[in-house]
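Batch manifest, entry 17 of 40.
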Amino acid sequence: MVTSGAYPLRRMPTQDRANRQVERILDAACAEVVERGYDAASTSGIAKRAEIAVGSVYRYFPDKRSLIQAIERRNQARYTEAVSERLAAVSSWRAAVDVTLDTFREMHRTDPGFKAVVLSGLGDPELESKPGEFDDQHAGEFAELLAARFGARDSRDFRLAVTLSIAMGESLAHLADRLSADEAEYVLEQGRPVLYNLLAPHLPA
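Output type: structure tokens
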């Protein structure tokens, strides 16, 4: 298995056309899982959606689970890029917390890849177990931003508080997106101060 940027592949694409095909396969897998569910989704259905032969799917991905893992890694790369761009304009650490939460909610609603992983219930175990991957990676980057731009006092407890705030923020976003607009607003109004309170002891008053 080789790695192409954000995710592992059986074979490395060597041309732009092949790279586009890999992205098309992942987009088709997202649509298949969202529409049919993980159990009913099939590689043949994914190939049909991508308008390619099923053998082309297997050229890059050995099975359905590996497709979900690749989607999750692509999600993380897209999320990190979007958050980084938006954080450049914030002027307070609370606004930075809002950006990470709001970006996650937006991508969950608009990018079928996020929904595909959530509905399947299948993340990549390596992303959850290896230090420096997935939430740990974003938490580390966010902790460094809070320290560099907003004077956070770096420590083990601070890093744990940031990691906890990221995990809680994602859970809050998932809950809000399952509710009506009024209920979602209430949940977010109640939840944001909890995230702020986790981080406030580590930042200047």
